[in-house]
Specification:
There is one protein chain. The protein is α/β, with parallel strands linked by helices. The chain contains 18 helices and 15 strands. Strand 11 and strand 12 form a beta hairpin. Helix 12 packs antiparallel against helix 15, helix 12 crosses helix 16 and helix 13 packs parallel to helix 15. The mean pLDDT is 86.
Length: 409
């Protein structure tokens, strides 16, 4: 195994966070001698982040855990443009009000992963609207326009993909990489930030900022990307049968979040323990030796540790307890705070129950899920939207979303 000088790079390497780096030796040397400040940017396209963002969030956490300073950059300005990276179509436009609301929703997530104390390693949250919305178009062109060539920009995979598919790439979107490069330069001046991190799809945008600062200031900055995470079966992290796996408890319950990790494929358990938990590597190595059905115990550890980070230890314990009651003890009298409960009298349709429990947004969606064979009551597949419920039990949509149905006397 490679041995690095700095704890930061060593931990990132051992846990599988590193995909590419502009100068790994230089970054390692710098991190071994001083506190470095690194950032990751997030556009406010929703009021919560999801599991697909978690690999990047954990990079910021590792940075702080090893004695350095993480910065969360909210894209108050860049959200209005939209990152074209590996997208097939133009992203929808957001109003100032929508962006502000989304940023407020996202802020609460980072308090669970980072320490925002007032110290040399305390995390910061900044907004690129503070500088990008104040700079004039002509001024920006004069400052950095000469440092970008169309020839170079057309070589980036994010641009080539859209053009190769003969899908429109607007001039507005084409400016996104320039704005992200400007962010890195500006953040270096404001907060002495020397490292930008992100997913591997951001490599071209990150390199732009590194090169721009080198050309203007003669400074070397660093870029580091993490692999885009896919499951062993090739599914992109962050997506499930029922939609995005949100990191906010009011959008996805701590129990459902726990269940998402509990249902990890066998081949992914060890990798995900390294990436998405703080469990020490020697303990992970012990879990790696488990075989057959014993792997389920490692999955429970993964689910608990991941839920603990996102929602706190109490909620993680409650989720684990609920799962044990439901699946091991077959106890339907579970605490209502862990799973949604619908009480009814007489007869009620499956579709109505699904909507009331939040397992479907409408009866139309309920019908689609039932027709796809994704709805079960007490482990029996529901065959018709008209089917009626006449007894207590558990209703499940896919493997990860559940609700309790109770018949009142």
């Amino acid at each position: 195994m490679a041995k690095f000088k700095s704890e930061f790079v060593q931990v990132m390497f051992e846990r599988g966070h590193i995909n590419q780096c502009t100068n790994i030796e230089g970054l390692d040397e710098k991190a071994s001698k001083e506190i470095i400040t690194g950032y990751i940017g997030y556009d406010a396209t929703a009021d919560s982040l999801h599991v697909g963002n978690l690999a990047a969030i954990m990079m910021l956490r590792r940075l702080q855990q090893t004695g350095h300073r993480p910065v969360v950059l909210m894209g108050g300005a860049t959200t209005k443009i939209g990152d074209p990276s590996f997208r097939d179509e133009t992203r929808k436009m957001f109003t100032d009000e929508q962006i502000a609301k989304n940023i407020e929703g996202i802020k609460s997530i980072f308090k669970n992963y980072l320490n925002f104390e007032d110290s040399p390693t305390g995390a910061l949250m900044v907004n690129n609207a503070d500088w990008l919305e104040k700079i004039g178009y002509i001024e920006m062109l004069k400052k950095i326009g000469t440092h970008f060539t169309i020839n170079r920009m057309l070589t980036f995979d994010s641009v080539k993909l859209r053009l190769d598919r003969e899908q429109p790439l607007t001039f507005l979107e084409f400016n996104y990489m320039i704005m992200q490069g400007y962010d890195f330069w500006e953040l270096n001046k404001r907060h002495n930030i020397s490292l930008q991190m992100g997913g591997s799809d951001q490599w071209g945008n990150i390199v732009n900022g590194v090169e721009l600062t080198r050309r203007i200031e003669g400074k070397e900055l660093y870029g580091l990307t993490t692999p885009l995470i896919q499951t062993a079966s090739g599914v992109k992290m962050g997506k499930s049968v029922s939609g995005a796996v949100w990191l906010r408890g009011d959008k996805l319950s701590p129990y459902d979040y726990w269940q998402f990790w509990r249902n990890t494929e066998d081949a992914d358990v060890v990798r995900f323990l390294k990436l998405f938990t703080d469990l020490p590597l020697p303990e992970i190595e012990k879990l790696e030796k488990l075989q057959g059905s014993e792997i389920n115990e490692a999955k429970k550890v993964l689910a608990f540790e991941a839920a603990k980070l996102a929602h706190g230890e109490h909620e993680a314990e409650q989720a684990a307890k609920t799962a044990q009651q439901l699946f091991e003890n077959k106890d339907m009298n579970v605490h209502a705070g862990n799973l949604p409960v619908y009480n009814f009298k007489g007869k009620v349709s499956v579709a109505e129950v699904m909507v009331e429990l939040g397992l479907a947004s409408s009866k139309g969606e309920a019908k689609r899920l039932i027709e796809q064979g994704g709805v079960k009551i007490n482990d029996q597949t529901v065959s018709s939207i008209q089917e009626e419920i006449q007894e207590d039990g558990m209703i499940s949509v896919g493997k990860k979303r559940h609700g309790i149905i109770r018949m009142e006397n």
